[in-house]
Amino acid sequence: MNDTIAVLITTLMMSVLTIAVVFLVLRHRRDVRGLLSRERLAALEKGVEIPWELDAARPRQASRLQLKAAFLLGGTGLGLMAAAAIGGGSADARDMARFGVFLLVTGLALFAYDALFGRHEWRRAAELDEELTRAYIRRLDRSGTQAHESVAENAGAGR
After folding, report:
1. Which tens digit of pLDDT belongs to each residue from 85-133?
2. What pLDDT digit, counting tens, does each position of 40-84 carry?
């Protein structure tokens, strides 16, 4: 009975810790986006023109989602296996250990995938994003020059 309670408490604490870390990371990202938005709005209110090229020139950070998931799954698997070891030789502890091994192997597979293919995929995605940003800037430039031409034509027609 005490072994089962120890396993449940360990599993619950690992789950709460994981949820807390994810919450803190998401809140930090939201705060950073909010600060960037406020900065841009303040610049627009002052009449400062924000160059679009800054967004395109800023180096993109690699999204290492596979690597993060690999560490999360592997760590959870190790934690479950440790909790099962504490729990002794009961049937529940063996089932938990099997599930922990499954999570650990899944995490190792994701780690191997990221090591072999992750960097190439990130480079390809970064190149596509860069191309899309350049196309958007060209479109804004064209629409801006067309707007200036139409204003000039309307001003000339009013005379």
Report:
1. 887 778 888 888 888 898 899 889 888 888 887 777 777 777 777 787 7
2. 777 777 777 666 555 544 555 556 777 888 898 899 889 888 888
Q: Which residues contact 50 (CB under 8 A, 6 or more apart)?
A: 40, 43, 44
Q: Which of 93, 73, 98 is nearest to 5 (CA)?
A: 93
| Per-residue tokens: 75 | 């760590």
88: Cβ–Cβ under 8 A, 6 or more apart, which residues? Answer: 3
| 3-class secondary structure, 62 | coil
Regarding pTM above 0.85, the answer is no
Domains of the chain by residue range: 2-157
Give the other-Cβ count within 10 Å of 18's Cβ.
Answer: 14
> Residue by residue, what is the 3-state secondary structure of 65-129?
HHHHHHHHHHHHHHHHHHHHHHHCCCHHHHHHHHHHHHHHHHHHHHHHHHHHHHHHHHHHHHHHH
